[in-house]
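Regression check, 3-isopropylmalic acid case 357:
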Amino acid sequence: MNLNIAVLPGDGIGPEIIEQALKATTAICNKFGHTLSYKQALVGACAIDATGNPYPDATHEICMQSDAVLFGAVGDLRFDNNPSAKVRPEQGLLAMRKKLGLYANLRPVTTFEALMHQSPLRPDIVKGTDFMCIRELTGGLYFGRPQGRSEDGNTAYDTCVYTREEILRIVKLAYEYAMKRRKKVTVVDKANVLATSRLWREVAKEIAADYPEVETEFMFVDNAAMRLIQWPSSFDVMVTENMFGDILTDEGSVITGSLGLLPSASIGVHTSLFEPIHGSWPQAAGKNIANPLATILSAAMMFEYAFGLMEEGKLIREAVDASMKANIRTADIQIPDAEPYGTKEVGDWIAEYIIRK
Ligand code: IPM
Ligand code: MN
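Current build output:
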């Protein structure tokens, strides 16, 4: 198969982790006889520096012409420390999601046997956790208008907006996934307070009626945050709006070991995008200490979701598992008393494992 992908390393640790994911991708292509061609493009702070725009048209063109986008992270301290900056790196990511129509962000929260000791929770609580959070990605507070400040600067506002159509397509997707899994959907909202959440509930109830085999559970987001640390294995498919999903999946990722492990796939109208859920960690940039696994696992999702190449994705997962079992781990997940490996060394080991297999 011909794999034509766009590679967007972004900022901070983005370039280093993407380099490792590309090594794994290349190794898989060589092994399975696929040809890989990719174009690199700018997004985030590096794009602002080069063009003034965090998601330049040239980058959008490349994404539109590709079969998949592999993305690192955006964000830079220069902007984090300057709340009055008019143009921000994160706007590049939001613009990319919006323009590519990527309304569904799939974030699988799973446990790794080799990382049980790493969880802040007791092993008996974490054990068996395996759920898919489906986060709405192009609506809600992130995109609702008006957003801004009053003239005197003393009042600020964001607007949460959802249309029936936006809710319908993502909740439907959640039920479709549930049908392929353990047939349970948890709709997370704040329907006791928010009008948008009440619309979510209304629409979800209508869709639930079309899937009688699926058990539906409605849960307020505060309760879900609690349940996630009390009984994470009770979730199968969780579907929720943009910001709730952002917050709950960071929580989900540390439960299973490290923020450096959770991959994601964003799917929708145009080219799908694959990215780790963690950020750009600018303090670690260039130090060869960042964990590349979430990005490598995002490449596995790319093979599966964008190209339907399941064996290829599976081998990447197997290589990631093997690296952890062999304790070839970066500092965030290394076992006590063992030397941590660098970003690059973990990437090399995984690529070699794939080739040797
Ligand atoms: C994520 C990130 C982004 C988000 C930021 C960088 C805009 O936290 O992908 O989860 O909030 O969506
Ligand atoms: Mn986030």
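Comparison notes: The chain has two domains: 1-110+259-357, 120-255. The mean pLDDT is 96. No diff flagged against the previous build.
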